[in-house]
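Appendix B. Extra example for self-study. Work through it before the problem class; the solution is given directly after the inputs so you can check yourself.
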Amino acid sequence: MSAAQHIHAPEGASVADSLALRPLIEDFNARYAYTLDRGNLEDWPGYFAEHGRYRITARENALAGLPIGLIYCDGHGMLNDRVRAILQTTTFAPRYLSHMLSGVFVKSIDAEGVIHAITNYMVLQTLVEGETRILQSGEYVDQFIRHGDSLLLKDRLCVYDSIMVPNSIIYPV
Amino acid sequence: MSAAQHIHAPEGASVADSLALRPLIEDFNARYAYTLDRGNLEDWPGYFAEHGRYRITARENALAGLPIGLIYCDGHGMLNDRVRAILQTTTFAPRYLSHMLSGVFVKSIDAEGVIHAITNYMVLQTLVEGETRILQSGEYVDQFIRHGDSLLLKDRLCVYDSIMVPNSIIYPV
Amino acid sequence: MSAAQHIHAPEGASVADSLALRPLIEDFNARYAYTLDRGNLEDWPGYFAEHGRYRITARENALAGLPIGLIYCDGHGMLNDRVRAILQTTTFAPRYLSHMLSGVFVKSIDAEGVIHAITNYMVLQTLVEGETRILQSGEYVDQFIRHGDSLLLKDRLCVYDSIMVPNSIIYPV
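Solution. Structure tokens for the complete assembly:
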């Protein structure tokens, strides 16, 4: 076997599956990012399946297999609770957020039809009159299920490489 | 109605429309960015319809509904005038620009067939022998019309979150 | 001829060719970036054709037509040698890399069917407990050949605008 045959090994879905699914995932992510960039938090749980899970954790924890993260939400009840808590309590310095996403990697489709994919993300933060800085970079480790002609998140694990101000992470990314 | 049905509400075009239009817009934007990154300013007006409009404004102005912006061009006459002015007068420190775009969000298609879409952008600037920095980040708030098998800009409003050196914005982004 | 007809001139493949090829290139690049972000260097040569070439060079050298670069690999033998050298000798401070790609510009398809394309890249580096910084930004100047239902690199020239620590470039990007 020539080295050239390694091109998509040892990981990744078939080219056909990837070409079919990437546009759906990119469309989903563009809407998701728009919702968060606009601060429309009340719409955020709608991107998840009813029992969908959302977590944020540091890469060193993820690599060590540690389950503890900065945010853990399991199902719409907890997602909505989190949104309510943020909307009711936070007072933030005015700031603008901008999600930059890159490179949807379709890893596999499992026996239940769940789509496993990974997308790099970077969230830029600009304080009013301030410089634009990288607030957080990392990757979405996702499990999608089909929902009509689109997708819903069964699981989104945000593995961050770094965050500028760890304590400030109460907003989802 | 379950929360899951909110997935694409309250905003955004249908999934079918979005899947059909995003590749066209991404292709358009890749060419547009290439033209500006290369400094081929004389080709820049060609991305606009004859009466196309181009504006750059700060997000706080956009949110306040203020019409004043750093750049305002209405139609090919003004776009070409701007290009000529830049080419004739500027002396810049040598620098390289790189557009990074993310997340075409197809918002709607109106009754006249105009496509409303939003794309996050980030312009990196590198001075020779210097560090790469984020010169500007923001979003394109676009109106596209169809032109043959491609698109033209009826309106591109660049809403920036921040700019490194406000006075230096004479180049389009 | 109206200015609007300039939209895709003077450079770039036809819209039809670009729309057909961009998804293939984006899929390829997403896998490529995933492989490097994961540090799976032994899989990296598999993205190249058997006689594929890989180079990294500074933009000022590229513009001046200078052939000398930081990395030069010609064919799988040299690509594999480089991987072996890196894996055997390097001791790095722990760090995470994240590729952000944007804007596949399909430039042309030549008489031999080779696809010429350009993609902007940015590599973020995070040292453990450190801030996320832009390690390198630049563009892939690529030549792809078809391989089954996918692509292989005949040539990838990485033209960087800047690098944070020039001497540290021993990893491919």
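Self-check: Residues 1-6 of chain A have pLDDT under 50 and may be disordered. If your reasoning did not lead you there, revisit section 3.
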